[in-house]
Design a protein that fits this description.
With 304 residues, this protein is of the alpha+beta class. The chain contains 13 helices and five strands. The protein is 47% helix and 12% strand.
Length: 304
């Protein structure tokens, strides 16, 4: 956040985010299926979600948001890596193709919710949160930002739990992100803006904001200290604790992506082409080739 050539820090992260799964625990309990535990793989969760959906006559076993960012955590758990030796995007590797091929197969056989991926075009984002909230979905892979949404909309309609990220052959990682608040240099009131930013970034104020907004803090001292989240819902507190614990297994390689200039190019290409593959318009191999070509064109067009 420090402008080039400056000693100033002109903003701060209002929250950190981490992708992870949510299970409809009531559906699992009613089906008599045990929630997969620590170390459970993507295949384990897919199988368990299918079993629960069949038992409870629920339409959708599993869903991932229509987002290249969301696909990236399992890709990296399967050993994928987007960044080449020269710092530019590398072609999709064996790890990426392994998960993406499996995911396309899940959309074809009904394990993964196809509607999310074929109901929009291009790189358009679509979440499956409303399907989870309406108890039409057994297992939902999204992220920590959904916790306040679920707290408000699910209430006591059913029990749900955050599960961390399923494992692949090489990792059990989520994908990181967040949101920041920045002071802009074109303000006509720089001294007033500075006072507001100093106030909001103050440890005690920031702690209160985090406790009331139900976000994961980006302030080291706040993260290290006790947090009294303002909710009476034990599911919410458990979910926040689960995401904070899951942060410990985040892949060092995936942590490079937020600051890498080509992340959005890859995320957009993934959403577009995997959406087409889910719709049956492209074979997996055709989708992989198109993703590589799309990203290469972005790099070429940038002149870098």
């Amino acid at each position: 956040m420090r402008p080039d050539g400056s000693d100033a820090i002109t903003g701060f992260m209002t929250q950190l985010t981490l992708t992870g799964g949510f299970a409809n625990k009531t559906l699992f309990d009613q089906a008599g299926v045990t929630l997969p535990g620590e170390g459970a793989t993507w295949a384990d969760w897919a199988a368990a979600a299918r079993q629960v959906a069949e038992s409870q006559q629920v339409p959708f076993p599993l869903a991932l948001d229509r987002s290249g960012h969301r696909l990236t955590a399992p890709i990296y758990s399967y050993g994928g890596n987007y960044i080449g030796p020269d710092g530019k995007p590398a072609p999709l590797d064996a790890g990426a193709k392994a998960f993406l091929g499996e995911f396309i197969g899940w959309t074809a056989d009904g394990t993964a919710m196809k509607d999310v991926w074929v109901s929009a075009a291009g790189s358009t984002y679509r979440a499956a949160s409303e399907d989870f909230i309406n108890a039409q979905l057994v297992y939902y892979y999204s992220g920590s930002w959904q916790i306040p949404n679920f707290a408000a909309k699910i209430g006591d309609a059913f029990d749900w739990a955050a599960t961390g990220s399923p494992c692949g052959p090489t990792a059990c990682t989520g994908n990181v992100g967040g949101a920041g608040l920045m002071a802009v240099k074109y303000t006509k009131n720089p001294q007033d803006v500075a006072k507001v930013m100093d106030f909001l970034a103050r440890e005690d104020v920031y702690r209160e904001f985090i406790e009331r907004s139900l976000f994961i803090p980006a302030h080291k001292a706040v993260l290290a200290g006790p947090l009294d989240y303002q909710t009476d819902d034990p599911q919410v507190k458990a979910a926040l604790d689960a995401f904070i614990a899951a942060a410990a297994t985040t892949s060092p390689d995936i942590q490079k992506l937020p600051a890498w200039r080509w992340s959005d190019a890859i995320y957009g290409a993934l959403a577009t082409r995997i959406g087409q593959a889910a719709a049956g318009e492209l074979s997996p191999d055709e989708a992989f080739a198109r993703i590589d070509a799309d990203v290469a064109q972005k790099v070429k067009d940038s002149g870098h």
